[in-house]
Design a protein that fits this description.
By secondary structure, the protein is of the alpha+beta class. It folds into two domains: 191 residues, no CATH class; 181 residues, no CATH class. The chain has 13 helices and twelve strands. The strands form two sheets. The protein has a six-stranded mixed beta barrel with strand order 2-3-8-5-7-6. A two-stranded antiparallel sheet has the order 11-12. The longest helix has 44 residues. About 3% of the residues have low confidence.
Amino acid sequence: MNPIVTFRISLASLGANKLRSGLTLLGIVIGVSAVISLMAIGQGVQQSITSRIESLGTNLLFVQPGESVQQGGLGGGAGSASTLTLEDAYALEDPVFAPAVKAVAPEIRANGQVTAGRNNTFAQVIGVTPEYTEVRNAPIEGGEFISQGHLNNYSQVAVLGSTIKETLFANRDPVGQPIRINGRQFEVIGTLESKGGGFFGSQDNQILVPITTAYYRVSSQRTTHGEVSVDSINVQMPDIGVMDEGMMQVATVLRLRHHITGEDDFIITNQQDTIETLQETTNTFVVFLGAIAGISLLVGGIGIMNIMLVSVTERTREIGIRKAMGAKRRDILVQFMSEATLLSLGGGAFGVLLGATIAQLLNGRPLLGNSPMETSFSWDIALLALGVSAAIGLFFGIYPAMRAASLHPIEALRYE
C-alpha cells in the first residue's frame, strides 16, 4: 500500500474518535515533557555546581591533615589529627623548593554564635590570611580585607559574607560596626560579594577573621610542638598545566618538614578531582530523574496498546471488508502499526514543546529560599525522548496490529 494512502487512512481513523485519541496522546505528551523538564533541571543543577566550583579556580590544590592510603599523599580520606601548621603553609611559598606555587592561603575553621544588637545567628568563622581573597576568589564588596598588620596584632576584626551581613544588619552598612563572636567583640572592616545560593554558596554564610585571632581567640587547637595548627591549606598554581608538578613539590616540602619516611600525614587533592567526583554524583542524579520520568512514558505506551486493542475490536468488520477486497496481511499490519506510531510521535512532538516550555519557565525561578533554579534544555535529550516515544508506539502497537492482521476475513465479516 502507498505510504501516503496509509498515512491518510491513519489520520482518518484517529480523527473518527478525537476524544479517545486525544486522551491517549496526552499520556505520551506528559511522559515526554516530564523526561525533558526533569532532565533539564538535573543538567542545570549539574552545570550550576560545576560552574560554582570552577569559579573558585581550577588551579587550586587543597592540603588537609590526615593519613593517606596511597603513597605520595595523593589520595585517601581526611583525618582529624592536627598535622598541618601555619609554618607549613609559609614553607610552601619557598621559591626554591616549590617554584610552581603562586600563593598560599591557610585556614582555621570554627563555628560561632554571632550577635549584632538584637540580631544573632550561627555561622562558620574562618581564620584566614590576606592571600585568601585572591586564592579563593572572594572579592570585597565594601570596606577592606584582612591585612598582615591585623595578623601581627591579633586584631579582633571581621569580614562578613553577604548572608551574614543581611541577617545581622539588613540594609544598613555594617562596616565599622561592632559584632560579638562567641562573646568576644569584633569590628566589621569589610563585606564580601555574594557567591550565590546552593551547595557552594556557603561562603555567604561565613565570617572571616585574621588567622592568628581565630587561633588565639576563637579556636585554640595546638600541635604536639605548640605551633599554630591549621585545618587546611589552599595552594594556588599559576595555571592548570603545572598542577601535577605543583602537587609533587608541595608533597616534597611537607615530607621534609614532617620528617616522613613512611605514609604521609597529609592529603593533597585538586579542584579537578572535586569536579569529577561531583559530576559522577550528579550524573547518577540526572539518570535517576530521567528513569522516574520514563515510567510515565511506559504508562503512555500501555495506553496506546489499550486503545489500539479497542480499535481492532471496533473495526473488525472493516478489517474483514478490506481483506475480502484484496488487502494482504501485511497491509493490515502496517495500517495499525502506523496508527500507533502516529499517536506516539504526535504525543512526543507536543511533549517536546511542552517540556522545553516548562524548562524555560522554571529557569531562574526561586527554588530554595533565594536560590534561583537553573535549567539546561538539551536538543539531544529532546530527540532521544522523541525517538523513545516512537519506539514505544511501535512496541506497544505490535500486538494489536498482529491481532488485526490475523483475523480471518469471513469471521470478521460475520462479527457483530
